[in-house]
């Protein structure tokens, strides 16, 4: 395995953003014919901030359903990795409940 040393935080952020875009475009948002999506993270020129992300409801659902893929690419510490991966299934269950249309009772 090739190890690449990135000297600046700008380089690190750029590589991380490219990894996330690749996961989103090829594994999450791509179509049934394995054609990749063309979505990109709206980054500032200095690579310090992410701009406003606007996605349609279907794409948000796709991302939530495959959130583990993003998480795996985002957390490198093995102990933290396993700890948080155990939290994802209950989170996804909560998101399904949250998407249901129902009246929320008023707090008294």
Order of helices and strands: HHHHH
Which word captures the global form?
globular
Number of strands: 0
Q: State the helix count.
A: 5
Largest sheet: none
Structural class: mainly alpha
Distance between the termini: 59 Å
- Poorly predicted runs are none
Approximately what portion of the residues adopt beta-strand conformation? under 5%
How many structural domains are formed by the residues? 1
Helix content: 40-55%
Describe this structure in words.
The protein has 108 residues and is mainly alpha-helical. The protein has one domain. It has helices spanning 9-28, 57-65, 67-74, 78-85, 88-99. Helix 1 (9-28) runs antiparallel to helix 3 (67-74). The longest helix is centred in the first third of the chain and has 20 residues, at 9-28. The chain is globular and about 55 Å long. The N and C termini lie far apart (59 Å). The model has no long low-confidence stretch (mean pLDDT 83).
Give the SSE map.
Layout: H1 9-28, H2 57-65, H3 67-74, H4 78-85, H5 88-99
Helix pairs in contact: 1-3
Descriptive keywords:
about 110 residues, mainly alpha, 5 helices, about 0% strand
